[in-house]
Fold each of these.
Amino acid sequence: MRVLGVDPGLTRCGLGVVDGGSGRAVSCVAVDVVRTPADAALASRLLRIADAVEEWLDRYRPEAVAVERVFSQHNVRTAMGTAQAGGVVALGAARRGLPVVFHTPSEMKAAVTGSGRADKAQVTDMVTRLLGLPEKPSPADAADALGLAICHLWREPMRARLAEAEARAAELAKKHRARLAAAAKQAKGAAR
Amino acid sequence: MRVLGVDPGLTRCGLGVVDGGSGRAVSCVAVDVVRTPADAALASRLLRIADAVEEWLDRYRPEAVAVERVFSQHNVRTAMGTAQAGGVVALGAARRGLPVVFHTPSEMKAAVTGSGRADKAQVTDMVTRLLGLPEKPSPADAADALGLAICHLWREPMRARLAEAEARAAELAKKHRARLAAAAKQAKGAAR
């Protein structure tokens, strides 16, 4: 399975494509950072990011896209820009019918380093080692994008199985309620 | 001039098209609210909003798009969804080369009611009156979208003039600095 990981941002948007198999082995296909000028209009910055993502989807044909989920940041303005960039990335993937999954930074860190509170240097080190890269990806946004793709490859089978189990449980609960209602109705009829 | 105003949101996204002339007269061309189900995947909700906006851009051919700028909200999750929705709206407009301008809620309220702190009911009342609508647009997101379009129509000439004046001042300052540098060089040469 091939996954495009995206660490969204207006100033720097990390993109990383990783291939994974049935085991834990992962390999890096491509990694880069898209930059947009801070003095450009917001809409044109978003367009530039969207175009870059479209190009990557065309060139590398990933089967899924993993995007960092932003909860909050110290700087609200930056957080909004990050969310907007993440939105256009998700849209590009959805237009092609690709599944888009959002992972929090701590989910990614936990998957890659074993600790949800790892710092940037630890994430970069582990990503470099896991992918057997000749040098550390830089800046941190590039390493984060690769980390998100790895996180997705490793978590997705479990996540999908969990979602399936939950759907099955909900279906059973629904059937059970219907059966109870039918029994109650029958009991009411018999009592008359 | 025709403007599409957008009050972005995942649950409800307000869309309003308003025509304006050289004076203050404005008329409503269309208004609606796009809803997306809360249980749908984020990417598919964004796709639905993007598709609706594309359809409106095709059908009504506005010359500019005015989007509400989100700074922060009580609920961070909602704020992020709003920002993501705003991002895909801006992207759709940018893809067609349309100018996209973000206005804060208080800019819109000030333009429409005269007070940046007006409440939802006051905005709805003024929008209804200004556009001579037979009934109040509902829900509030619809009125807000129309308010944003009106705000843009009224503020844009001033905003554009201000931006032009600032660009001219920056150009003059640059020329002035170049002249000073040339004079200093000349003086240095003469002193030798």
Amino acid sequence: MPKLSQKAVDMPASPIRKLVPYAEQAYAKGLKVYHLNIGQPDIATPETAINAMKNADIKVLEYSHSAGFASYRNKLAAYYQKTGINVNAEDIIITTGGSEALVFGFMTTCNPGDEIIIPEPFYANYNGFAVMAGMDVVPVRATIENGFALPPVEEIEQKITAKTKAIVICNPGNPTGYLYSKEELEQLAAIVKKHDIFLFADEVYREFCYDGAVPHSVMNLKGIEENVIMIDSVSKRYSMCGARIGAVISKNKEVMAGVMKFAQARLSPPTIEQIGAEAALETPQSYFDEVIAEYVERRNVLVDGLNSIPGVFCPKPSGAFYCVAKFPVDDSDKFCQWLLEEFQYEGQTVMMAPATGFYSTKGAGKNEARLAYVLNKEALEKAVECLRAAIEQYPGRVEVSEDSKNLSSVG
Amino acid sequence: MPKLSQKAVDMPASPIRKLVPYAEQAYAKGLKVYHLNIGQPDIATPETAINAMKNADIKVLEYSHSAGFASYRNKLAAYYQKTGINVNAEDIIITTGGSEALVFGFMTTCNPGDEIIIPEPFYANYNGFAVMAGMDVVPVRATIENGFALPPVEEIEQKITAKTKAIVICNPGNPTGYLYSKEELEQLAAIVKKHDIFLFADEVYREFCYDGAVPHSVMNLKGIEENVIMIDSVSKRYSMCGARIGAVISKNKEVMAGVMKFAQARLSPPTIEQIGAEAALETPQSYFDEVIAEYVERRNVLVDGLNSIPGVFCPKPSGAFYCVAKFPVDDSDKFCQWLLEEFQYEGQTVMMAPATGFYSTKGAGKNEARLAYVLNKEALEKAVECLRAAIEQYPGRVEVSEDSKNLSSVG
């Protein structure tokens, strides 16, 4: 049998999905499992999007333009303008999800062996997309104690080599929920300008900012217009994860011409789901107001609940619908597996994503886990109860001084 | 501004789309343009597929499984079994179109610098997918005089080096319409076995075989089960190009595990269009009988019409809905552009895809063009009339001896 490629070996298995067999064991035992491990919201997709797909009068399900329907690109540009983000229709190429947008963006800008700097913890699939493009990920450490704020500029600059081609951020962040301030983005812009590298920003959680926090888009940063590539997606914004509609956005004409060649090779993004995404742009503000109010309540239930458990610390995120919490345990991979394999509390247990999969540095995040607050408040309350009981019972529990906990009450 | 990657430079621009600006000039002059340049059929999508998407009761448009819905994979396996092709559900990973299937397949099996052998002319986007995976395409020449039959085995074997990782075929072929015989496939199997390389077969046109010709799947080749990777798609079979639903199929568990890691990184194929693809499997045979009867008539109108033009030769294809024709012209790129830019016949003209884009060898196919018979018979008759007049008027016309034409009446 011929050998597989090195990429097939290097591709990471999904850290979020590797516990699935243990979850299946838990179901088999009749346990109720609270799934805080995945970013699949239970929020209803806007009816305007669903109805547009149902009512589309299609006789022949044809390809769209490789860059996506012109009508969609025009309306999407109008959405950005209305949101105060400087984007025109010609700056947009519609992709099959944010995933494809990242792959095309990476392949257009980076050669095999080039380095991209990413503050860790970061969305685990960035590793996979980097493997696909043959790039090396260079992490720079954000800490839970600082609420996952941007690491100091000097630390980022220390990582820059002749091979550095880009910095990649997710804002608001998955898995941290951290929202970069305008000042932090301007610090990044200064580095990007000084070293003339690209800045990728995955802004798919833009709509989910809480407590009056305002998201700032990299598209509005001055002086680095040619360096910025924004990644977007309808997946989370309209709870349309299954639509697989995203976008690459840049003012850099050469980048867009490069991305377009990759887009042409795969012909087009999905037609019907583009129709849904276009219609979703007419979702009324009231939908977001309701969704955001819901997420704020969920976040408070989950994060306040976690922080009320002795030895647990979770910075309160300002955006997205994830948080990373630190647990008083020896190894969160083992803890997460134990929750499914050996633990139960009144017939229930919790599934979380061990944070190690979100760090590129070996051993980092060993006592952290990501939790997605994509379930309703009652479920989250029960999940917190489960975790409280679990921490008491877990054989690998370690003592944490209250000092180190207090240190962390930032963010 | 930072430099783009070498891949962005190497990615070929679509040879099919590069004439679009000239077509737009033709529209601006008020000309009717017969589009024989693209493989977008005008055939209606089966109602069963359209209705399933319309009637899907979706509240939250969620991700599917990364390998596609289990229900779809099960029914798809049943379709293959019914078609006499040895495939089980666990041999299938659903992808976003045949395009993604090829990219995942190539990335799973080939390292940068590895070589893949492809009989040319071949589907132009294979070049793009090879660039994405960093592979080198090594063409082996099929000739119009032989109706684009498989090149002699010795010629294929001569191309095999230590870097050769796979042979790639499209069967029935785009752009040639050639259907490989069982004997030809067994010849390929022998080479694949002898050199222990992979065999990729793009079988998306399987349903379109004419005049009683029977397609043979590589999945049924004996002794190379671990080497075979089949690519499939609903795009052409059910006229669902815009659905972007395809599949990677292999009995090789390691290959499938590798592909699965790429599939997990991009989360899932589109949900609603998968529902449509699953329902499309219930399309009655009468739909295909009608569609095939229609394509046979179209093929006859186009191919017989082309062969009736002095100096033009077109082997009659047994499958798919393309043909490659040889024209008595100096340069078919120039000829195709001239048709749009300077020619008209009673207010009409024809758009074709110059064949050079389907050859990897520089200069090959210089007097050939691909025509897709995706328009109705009346339109095809008029297109032939246009081409007859065009050949008479074209300033770059070259004389062709009737001898060389007769030589070619094979296939």
